[in-house]
Automatic annotation (TrEMBL):
It comes from the Bacteria. Pfam families: GST_C, GST_N. This is Glutathione S-transferase family protein. Residues 1-86 form the GST N-terminal domain.
Amino acid sequence: MIDVFSWPTPNGHKVHIMLEECGLEYRALPVNIGAGDQFKPEFLAVSPNNKIPAITDPEGPDGRPFSLFESGAILVYLAGKTGRFLPGPDRTRYEVLQWVMFQMGGVGPMLGQNHHFRQYAPTSLPYAIDRYTNEARRLYGVIDRRLAMSKWLGCGEYSIADIATWPWLRNWKNQGIELSDYPHLEKWFHAIEERPAVQRGVKVLADLRKPLQDDKAREILFGKTQYERR
Ligand SMILES: N[C@@H](CCC(=O)N[C@@H](CS)C(=O)NCC(=O)O)C(=O)O
């Protein structure tokens, strides 16, 4: 049984959805990032960047326990383990990986900053909100143009590129986005939303998450606990 150290955020949802899509047995172990669980030594041992998600597979590639952090690496690993959602080894494999990297290096970080300045920053910073709203709209446009040419983001079939990206776009209402401005993306969005494994994946640990309002959680995530740790 795979242990998933996680929390119900977009990066956590990716892994929960992949495990559900693959039908793998797993146990979701909550790491409450608003309470500081990500700084506990046992979590840092598997995730030295103090971020969820991370996994431990008791049966790693060599038959021994194997731990991984970084959601993109986890998706690639689970795809390799099961032979699902990462086609190839022809060119489609690299096309899918290209869109996974686009999510990891662009969509996640930019939409993460968008959420930060729209929802969590203690004061309104119009320049930052404009910057990350513009960047969100640009990225939605890139995805929409891709989906005008391809049924799925990575290649002609549903893949880890879709699983990586959809959870971030799920919060479009909080990103200054109007989904109907991106018709190809909108169709793709709803097709993924209807998948039973996706519906199960987004429910994993979901009851535990509360709106990030208290000062203690803000301090942990954005203050001294985060930045003055030795
Ligand atoms: N690139 C990482 C990003 C992970 C990440 O940002 N996780 C956030 C939640 S979505 C987190 O654990 N934050 C806790 C912290 O920063 O202390 C991945 O994709 O796994």
